[in-house]
Amino acid sequence: MPLVSASEFLTAARENGYGVGGFNTNNLEWTQSILKAAQAKNAPILIQTSEGAAKYMGGYKVCYDIVADLIDSLGITVPVALHLDHGSYEGAKAALAAGYTSIMFDGSHFPFEENITKTKELVALAHSKGASIEAEVGTIGGEEDGIVGSGELADINECVAIAETGIDFLACGIGNIHGPYPENWTGLSFERLQEITTAVDGALGHKVPLVLHGGSGIPEDQIKKAISLGVAKINVNTELQLVFRDATNEYVKAGKDHEGKGYDPRKLLAPGFTAIVNEVENLIERFGTTEKA
Ligand code: 13P
User: Fold this and answer.
1) Is 106 inside any structural domain?
2) Confidence check: pLDDT of 151 > 90
């Protein structure tokens, strides 16, 4: 199946009360692992790159070609959207031009009116290409590829105004943060989440899928509750980085890179590869997306 917009499967997720993973990729191995896990679980997914990851991989066109060609050569039949995570105004345009089927325009650091104006323009551009678009209000805490946010709760009126630009799904701060959660984290604000869902769905007259950034390390009961209150896309990057690090560490610490041809990158990266397949399968199960393709 060719790459698709995320709009249809996220709307279905919101309506039917499950979450779809937005899994960040960083290289060829991760991309294969994520796609294989989605296929094994028969689940729709978004495979996403930050701007930094896309640059690291050789540019948007390389990312597009890798994902599109792997879908073909691995025989992936589940719906996959290639999504730009935390895109800048210019980055969003460049990713669409390269063939990304979904973008996030993160204008949360602009004055609100400018965020609205730029989002509107990118909604028209994305939709003219059949791509879906996510926007953000209220910064997500922590740091994601150089984008630093303090983790404030999103303003409800701003959520409504940005949803009215015609975006397909909305990222709004509800106490979530990128990277590992600190010891003193007080949890997600379900009160604010409920207020946002009520206001946004009420204003638009239909259920708008919400996006939970910072999905790594949130306890399972909080993820489930967030899904029940309107979250339909859950972003995960750090958890994949950690399992990849741990599996690679274990291999090296056991001295396996010194046994035979254990230094061959195909062997050296294999434990991390498998760890990501397993982790993505577990998360798909946890988000309720198994057999939802
Ligand atoms: P984590 O750092 O919690 O994995 O969040 C990833 C994310 O939200 C990407 O936008």
Assistant:
1) yes
2) no
Measure 118 CA to ligand 1 centroid, in angstroms: 23
Please indicate, yes or no, if residue 262 is contained in any of the structural domains.
no
At residue 234, what are phi and psi to the nearest 5 degrees? Answer: -125, 120
Catalytic, out of 85, 106, 155, 221: 85
The answer to whether residue 253 sits within a structural domain is: no
| pLDDT score recorded for residue 143 | 61
With beta carbons less than 8 A apart as the criterion, state whether 83 and 102 touch. yes
Question: β-pairing, 45-50 with 80-87?
Answer: parallel
CATH number at residue 94: 3.20.20.70
Residue 139: the pLDDT is: 72
Query: What atom of ligand 1 comes closest to residue 140's alpha carbon?
Result: 8
- 93 vs 179, which has greater pLDDT? 93
Cα of 264 vs centre of ligand 1, distance in Å, is 31
Q: What is the DSSP letter of 141?
A: B
pLDDT value at position 176?
A: 92
Number of domains in the chain: 1
**Rounded CA separation 2/8 (Å):** 14
What's the CA-to-centroid distance between 227 and ligand 1, angstroms? 16
pTM given for the model? 0.96
Q: Provide the domain limits for residue 78.
A: 7-240
Rounded to an integer, the average pLDDT of 240-269 is 98
- Residue whose Cα lies nearest atom 9 of ligand 1: it is 235
**Residue 65 catalytic?**
no
Grade residue 152 by pLDDT with cuts at 50, 70 and 90.
confident
| Distance from C-alpha of 129 to C-alpha of 100, rounded to nearest angstrom | 10
> Residue 16 falls within a domain, yes or no?
yes
Ligand 1 site residues, Cβ closer than 6 angstroms = 24, 85-86, 144, 178-179, 213-216, 235-239
